[in-house]
Every structure is written in structure tokens, then in C-alpha cells.
Specification:
Blueprint (H helix, E strand, L loop, with lengths): L15 E9 L4 H13 L2 H8 L3 E7 L13 E8 L3 H21 L8 E5 L10 E3 H7 L29
Antiparallel strand pairs: 1-3, 1-4, 2-3, 4-5
């Protein structure tokens, strides 16, 4: 995509790229994808970029389709961003994704392994923008750093069990 004319990016002629956010590992992927999409649309860290039309959220068919979905096409969330703000939007979106995923994992079934990836284009500007919640977890990396990263929030010091005293 060489210009932003059909992407919602503010100025025609401004180069834009697509950042693909994929979700896997849940039994309710369609509902989870809708919830994550809504979460991102309402994320305070993306609010300014959305208001300035520096980023547009869309949905597209996933590059990876599985026959187990019974013929239903799997979709991904697409962030269309101008190259100039791609890195900052990607980092802000990723922080929001991490928060959403921590909350989702708290309610996951034992056999579910919710995972989210963010991928820039395969080549050119933004191709180095790649993130994977499994990679971050393996490194013990939570770049969130926010106040909700402590015990009981799904952060690195999270304990298993309920939120109420006496719950296991």
C-alpha cells in the first residue's frame, strides 16, 4: 500500500503499512477477537492516534486458516498506520494487547493457551515490528511496566487462585 487514500490514514500520499494482530489458542476465537478489537478501539494509549487518523483498525482473513474451524474463515485485526508513527503505535497497541491477554488468561479453560502475535509487513518499512506473547513470556518480559503488573493482576508475581480472600 503506497498511499493512505483507501486506508483511513490521514493524508493521501502518506505511506502506510499494515500491522497484523493474530489471536490463537482459545475455544472462542471469534468472540475473543471481537473483544480484543473493541479493547484496542477504546484503549487510551491509542486514543490520540485514532482521533488523528494515524491508525485505522480493520479485520481481514488470517494468513493461517485451519480446517478445524468448520469452514469458517479465521480473521485477524489489522492496524493500518502511517510509517512515521508505526513504531510508537505498535508499542502502544502491544501494551494494550498484553493487558487484554492477562485478563483473558485469567478466565481461560485449563486446555486453552491464549496467544497473540503482532507482525509488520514481510519486507520494507515496519518489517522489524514483530511481537509474540509466547516469546515475551519465555523471556519473562512484560514491557507494560504499568501499575497493574504486580501481584494478583496477571503480572509476573501473579499467584494462582481467586481474587477474594479464602478463594483457591
Amino acid at each position: 500500500m503506497a498511499d493512505g487514500a483507501d486506508t483511513g490514514v490521514r493524508e493521501q500520499g502518506q505511506e502506510s503499512i499494515e500491522l497484523r494482530i493474530s489471536l490463537s489458542g482459545t475455544h472462542t476465537r471469534r468472540d475473543d477477537l471481537e473483544a480484543l478489537s473493541t479493547w484496542l478501539r477504546n484503549a487510551p494509549v491509542l486514543e490520540d492516534a485514532l482521533e488523528r487518523d494515524e491508525v485505522t483498525l480493520a479485520r481481514k482473513d488470517s494468513l493461517t486458516q485451519a480446517e478445524a474451524m468448520g469452514g469458517e474463515l479465521i480473521q485477524d485485526i489489522i492496524l493500518v498506520v502511517s510509517v512515521e508513527v508505526a513504531r510508537s503505535v505498535a508499542e502502544n497497541a502491544w501494551r494494550s494487547v498484553e493487558t487484554w491477554l492477562r485478563n483473558r488468561r485469567r478466565f481461560a479453560e485449563p486446555e486453552e493457551r491464549p496467544r497473540v502475535t503482532l507482525d509488520g509487513p514481510p519486507e520494507g518499512a515496519g518489517s522489524d515490528l514483530r511481537r509474540d506473547t509466547d516469546d515475551d513470556a519465555a523471556r519473562g518480559d512484560s514491557r507494560d511496566g504499568g501499575p497493574d503488573a504486580g501481584p494478583g493482576s496477571g503480572g509476573p508475581n501473579r499467584t494462582r487462585g481467586g481474587d477474594e480472600p479464602g478463594e483457591v
